[in-house]
TrEMBL record:
<keyword id="KW-0808">Transferase</keyword>
<feature type="active site">
    <location>
        <position position="332"/>
    </location>
</feature>
<dbReference type="Pfam" id="PF00868">
    <property type="entry name" value="Transglut_N"/>
</dbReference>
<dbReference type="InterPro" id="IPR023608">
    <property type="entry name" value="Transglutaminase_animal"/>
</dbReference>
<dbReference type="InterPro" id="IPR038765">
    <property type="entry name" value="Papain-like_cys_pep_sf"/>
</dbReference>
<dbReference type="InterPro" id="IPR036238">
    <property type="entry name" value="Transglutaminase_C_sf"/>
</dbReference>
<comment type="similarity">
    <text>Belongs to the transglutaminase superfamily. Transglutaminase family.</text>
</comment>
<feature type="active site">
    <location>
        <position position="274"/>
    </location>
</feature>
<dbReference type="InterPro" id="IPR050779">
    <property type="entry name" value="Transglutaminase"/>
</dbReference>
<dbReference type="InterPro" id="IPR002931">
    <property type="entry name" value="Transglutaminase-like"/>
</dbReference>
<keyword id="KW-0012">Acyltransferase</keyword>
<feature type="active site">
    <location>
        <position position="355"/>
    </location>
</feature>
<dbReference type="Pfam" id="PF01841">
    <property type="entry name" value="Transglut_core"/>
</dbReference>
<dbReference type="GO" id="GO:0007399">
    <property type="term" value="P:nervous system development"/>
</dbReference>
<dbReference type="GO" id="GO:0005739">
    <property type="term" value="C:mitochondrion"/>
</dbReference>
<dbReference type="InterPro" id="IPR036985">
    <property type="entry name" value="Transglutaminase-like_sf"/>
</dbReference>
<dbReference type="GO" id="GO:0003810">
    <property type="term" value="F:protein-glutamine gamma-glutamyltransferase activity"/>
</dbReference>
Amino acid sequence: FVEFKLYGVDLKLVENLSRHRTDGFISSKELVVRRGAAFKVGLELKGRPFNPNTDILKIKIMLGRLYTIMPVSYRPKHSDSLWTAFMDLSSFNPQQPCVYISPPASAPVGRYKLVICAFTKDGQSVCTLGKLTLLCNPWCKEDSVYIPFEDQREEYVLNDSGLLFTGTATNLVPRPWSFDQFESGVLEACLNLLEVSPQHQLNRRTDYLNRNDPVYLSRVVSAMINSEDDRGVVKGNWTGDFKDGLNPSLWTGSGDILRQWAQSGFSPVKYGQCWVFAAVMCTVMRVLGVPCRVVTNYNSAHDTNSNLVIEEYYTKTGQKLPGSKDSIWNFHVWVECWMSRPDLGSAMDGWQVLDPTPQERSGGVFCCGPAPVKAVRDRRIGLIYDVPFVYAEVNADVHTIIVSQGQVVRVNKDTEKVGALICTKAVGFPRVQNITGDYKVVRSMYTCGIPQSPEHHGGLQGGILVFLNLDKPAVSGEPIRFTIKIINKQNKVKRLKMHLNAQAKEYNHTPSDTFWESHGVLQMGPAEGKDLIQQQILPTQYEDVVGDDLINLAVVLEDMSSQEQALATEEFNIASPQLIIKIANENSVMVHREQMATVTFTNPFSHPVSGILVVAGAGLIQDKVTFRSVPKITGGKVQQAISFIPRMVGSKMLLANLMLTDVRSTVRGFKMVSVKSG
Ligand SMILES: *[C@@H]1O[C@H](CO)[C@@H](O)[C@H](O)[C@H]1NC(C)=O
Ligand SMILES: *[C@@H]1O[C@H](CO)[C@@H](O)[C@H](O)[C@H]1NC(C)=O
Ligand SMILES: *[C@@H]1O[C@H](CO)[C@@H](O)[C@H](O)[C@H]1NC(C)=O
Ligand SMILES: CC(=O)N[C@H]1CO[C@H](CO)[C@@H](O)[C@@H]1O
């Protein structure tokens, strides 16, 4: 029987990939399958046919040095914990036999090797080798990442684009983002990430064994996304100076970042801030098959001393001071991953907070989570991991303090500000979903999407109340109009000094110098209410200072006879113009066929601007995004035509990012493109 030869494993790529919902990875030319579901492997025989009565097949599956050997049976076998393999004799082709291999739903994820050996009756054997990548399987009930709704599985595992929310709770700014999990080099970089991790370097065997558990996987990934403590992917920088790297606002997707990291031999990519860390983590988790979404928390507290109070300091003239080590970021972005928590009990199953932005060490390294969202809501701060930290991020109180000559002259307490709104992208639609109620029991006055300004006020004990309100959301190129309302609660005439102060402020910084101020004196009659004090800041006064930053506006009143103070503040962003993207023949976009689009920018600024345009889109524009310079424009329109060849069928996002060089703004836009199979 010397003529019996086994030639190569035909991994039946295309067919089984679509059944495993891994067909997006087709360009990786590897077999990518999910645990808990069988896949099919075909064998090429040369010489005599396979004889099921006398020949025996055995399969060895290897993950590093861990391995398991299974006999190939002739009847399907099911096991929750073991790999099994069988041959279907009813559709048996003796020249090209097929084997079905089933990984258990609890198998570790990673890159496996596979050896198939045939033994003949007289003791001869021949073997052949294959490779496969095994991922988690949210479609499989026995998998600990199982999520029971198809639209959610598609969004949280397969969607390769999305929106990240920035801005403020009353004026959300969606940033389009390309998660890129199916773009070239991304799958490989994600698997590399597991291998470069300190856990793997320290003890491969233990790491491989632990990789069956999404709690472990997500914690490893949360530490590896930032470059602190390890050879992680992204370096954070909050200095505002990014000259030896890329400004975090200019990334359009995760693909560039992960490829750059892998190609540089795993040196950190410069630079990221919270939404970049979170978006790259979301890509890695979706690639690994763990359902994941990016979440924004507005007015996110960073409570360094765990007293659940954040202090903010102002001068008597309304200037915000660099405060304590505690801080409030106007927004902070993290991710949630969906998994069961056998370590905590089924009540904690579901969404888990993971925060890859390096803020505080957890277990000695910069990582955070998984913290069950339910534990945060129910204040179960004894549960692992990092529940108290996340709890403070969404629940701390804010004390606004006026200081004068080292003395505290006034304290306002706000219990509603922190965690004003927590949101993510909705399933299947490019819009926001409010998930505040998952994190806390709220009586919030903020609304999602519809700008509605809450009234921030401060009053003298028994004396004067002051309110500060924007007349409407601030828009680029238009004056910022606001109204101050004062009520004299006492039955006597009061003379008041009024100080108004505006400062620009990055989303996570203490404000820069005052760029606009106004001072005056006014008189209030007994028990009088005034709400006609209208003020405005003109575009020429804020345009060049503010850009993508926020404005911190404050009013301080001082009773000239008693010296008592009252303060009201408002923080807001300026809605920037949008890029408009138009797709030619929008309803007949075909895969692999060249397609045209135009990006239009209308300049709302009071002077000419120019900038760099980047266009990207997972599944639409291969590899690198296109950079183009846009000519100077004065109040007018500029149009840029682009062409691309869609690579994948489905609903894909084309996105554009214009970094203006004359003002400190980045202008964005996106358009969903429905690509048909032709
Ligand atoms: C931030 O970037 C600046 C300029 O590129 C660089 O000089 C500085 O060292 C960076 N800071 C960190 C923490 O990497
Ligand atoms: C991804 O989200 C977009 C909306 O942002 C939607 O149009 C598309 O159908 C989603 N894709 C999948 C695979 O769920
Ligand atoms: C967001 O949800 C919270 C809690 O359910 C609610 O109080 C708040 O008004 C919502 N904001 C919206 C719908 O914009
Ligand atoms: C086990 C398994 O799912 N194999 C599938 C591979 O693809 C072929 C063709 O679609 C299916 O017939 C097999 O069932």
